[in-house]
Design a protein that fits this description.
alpha+beta, single chain
């Protein structure tokens, strides 16, 4: 029984040394948690808008559009889309619908802009309407990063 115990101890020490040599110099880097980026359906976006107010879902940030761009009559109202950082204006975020049509811009959001630079884009929902004087306005809720 003593030779068996000695052999098991030697075998265990060889395995431990092999594991230590294999992992030597490699730092553990924990995986980044993925941001849940589920897409909202256009029907859900319509339910979140009523009487000129856009309800903000949990996990989203609410912004008024600094500039809302002209769109055709058939696409006025609620939309589902995405936001991207504006490459030409530091701190500005561009809002698109899912068809790639430009809906507006959010100015002066440097902190969110810098986070969005590493991400590329994230989901949003919102609305664009035309007021009686012909100007466009809107709101958007963007996914928290």
């Amino acid at each position: 029984m003593t030779p068996t115990v000695i052999i098991l101890i030697i075998l265990a020490s060889v395995i431990i040394v092999a594991v230590i040599r294999h992992t030597h110099g490699k730092d553990y880097i924990p995986p980044k948690p993925k941001v849940a980026d589920e897409t909202i359906t256009p029907e859900q976006a319509k339910q979140l808008y009523s009487d000129g107010e856009l309800t903000t879902r949990a996990g989203y940030l609410h912004y008024d559009l600094s500039e809302a761009y002209e769109v055709s009559e058939k696409v006025l109202g609620t939309f589902v889309g995405y936001v991207k950082p504006d490459a030409q204006h530091d701190g500005d975020i561009i809002v698109y619908d899912n068809d790639g049509q430009l809906r507006g811009r959010i100015n002066g959001q440097r902190e969110y802009y810098s986070t969005l630079l590493s991400r590329g884009r994230t989901n949003c929902y919102g609305f664009v309407l035309r007021s009686d004087d012909g100007n466009y306005h809107g709101e958007v809720c963007v996914r928290k990063l």
